Structure of Retinoic acid receptor responder protein 3-like:
Amino acid sequence: MASSKGNKKPKPGDLIEIYDNQLFQHWAVYVGDDVVVHLVPNNVVEGVAEVKKEELGKVVKNRKWIVNNKLDSKYQHRPARAIVRDACAMVGQKMRYCLLNSNCEHFVNNLRYGKSESRQVQKGVIAGVIAFFGIVFAVALGVSIKKKLYQ
């Protein structure tokens, strides 16, 4: 099994968070025997992705990963058997892909909880709003200072 950042060995139905970069992570659902099912974008521009079933080590490569059933405190998860069954039944399907509302995290959360939710998108939107208002504030402050200097 590929080494994890944490010490927790995944169980069927667990969600696997794979650290791609500082901003976004890739997500998969563990189906057993060191295998995961995940949504892989074929063409992000065209919004197409495919559901694939692959060995965990092949998916994570040399990246860090953890078992992260982060929404268990918010939602009741579905039975592991149902999660695995539904995930495996979707393998090979082409699906719509959109970073904001139909990404790999939405996919796995829908399988585990029946809720299509992405915390990383929510965090990104909040960060974007804060950055936007920060820029607006900086511009307004700059205009105010400029007016005072030239009065």
In short: The CA atoms of residues 93 and 129 lie 35 Å apart. Residues 118-151 form one domain. The beta strands are 15-19, 25-32, 35-43, 48-55, 65-67, 94-96.
